Amino acid sequence: MNPTHPVTLPQATGELPAVPLTIEGFATLHQMMRFRWTAWRATAERVRHEIAAEAAQLLSGMESGSNGQSALFSLLGHKGDLMFVHFRESFDQLNQAELDLARLRLHDFLEPTSSYLSVIELGLYESSLKTYKALAEQGAEPHSEAWKQAIAEIVERQKEAMKPRLFPPMPPNRYICFYPMDRRRGETENWYKLPMEERQRQMHDHGLVGRRYAGEVKQIITGSIGFDDWEWGVDLFADDPLVFKKLIYEMRFDHVSAVYALFGTFYVGVRCPAAGLGELLEGKLPGRA
Q1: pTM of this prediction?
Q2: Which parts of the chain fold into alpha helices (H)?
């Protein structure tokens, strides 16, 4: 063997995967509730105060949890009165949060209107194609044991590097906008039939729009394929709700949204810290923290 010439590894013969790599963080649950105001007003004032204090104590612990946090929002419009948002390290912990709320006396006055289950997700479009091609050039066959081991190592490194984005604290902003969404996959356009290179290019351009609002809005994307009725959930947090309109409107003109995006129901709410729960239940929105 001539040491001056590089060794050429055999090319993998299998077709490169079409699915981009993803890394996941907190399990996430949104609970939308309607409040039974008539029954609440019929309850003695002393009992109302006791119920509110009990709920506020639980919510306070959830707000400051070390394994993920929760937040309560007062919803605008007819879709519900309250929305609880939970970040946890596992689905078991999410279910425990549900059970803890269900055990409260306050829960007797709540009627679920909707919910959404998902996990914080970062799509690795930028690196997936490079990774797949590099492994193929090294002779690794797609989906072989060597391929899967190499992918697992890469994903683990990426997850460690992206930990702050995968396991974030609950944003403290005053307002939230949550909505689920899909990518079109029928009729004349189908996102999932596009080549990986084209999806990567469009997602890169799509991300540039959001980055222009980096100082005004905090965006958290969650994946829900296999968990709920839509494919992704989007949470936007800001101190000025008009930012939601401006950002989403501008996104509409981006190619990937204009052609492939399908949107579900939008929920907009105002933050209610645990300390302000009593005020909220007496019909007064708590002030800014």
Answers
A1: 0.87
A2: 37-41, 45-63, 91-102, 125-137, 145-161, 163-166, 196-211, 242-252, 255-260, 277-281
Phi-psi region of 80 (alpha: psi -120 to 50; beta: other; left: phi over 0): left
Q: What is the pLDDT of residues 172-195, one digit of tens each?
A: 999 999 999 998 877 778 877 788
Please report which residue ranges of 10-116 form alpha helices under DSSP H.
Answer: 37-41, 45-63, 91-102
- Average pLDDT for 46-70: 97
Alpha-carbon dihedral angle through residues 193, 195, 197, 200, given to the nearest 10 degrees = 10
**CB 68, CB 93: distance < 8 Å:** yes
Helix (H) or strand (E) holding 32: strand 22-35
Asked if 98 contacts 29 with a C-beta cutoff of 8 angstroms, the reply is yes
CB 120 within 8 A of CB 24: yes
Q: What share of the chain is helix, strand, coil (3-state, %, to 5)?
A: 40, 25, 30
Which residues lie across from 24 on neighbouring strands?
A: 121
The confidence score (pLDDT) of residue 184 equals 80
Rounded Cα–Cα distance for residues 288 and 273 (Å) = 9
The residue with tokens 């914080």 is 120
User: CA 119, CA 232: separation in Å to the nearest integer?
Assistant: 9
Q: Are strands 110-123 and 189-190 parallel, antiparallel or unpaired?
A: unpaired
Angle formed at CA 101 by CA 78 and CA 163, multiple of 5 degrees = 90
Helix (H, G, I), strand (E, B) or coil at 162: coil
List phi, psi (to 5°) of 51: -65, -45
Cα 209 to its chain centre, rounded Å, is 18
With a CB cutoff of 8 Å and minimum separation 6, the contacts of 150 are 135, 140
Q: For the chain, give the number of residues.
A: 289
Question: What residues are annotated to the active site?
Answer: 179
DSSP state of 7: P
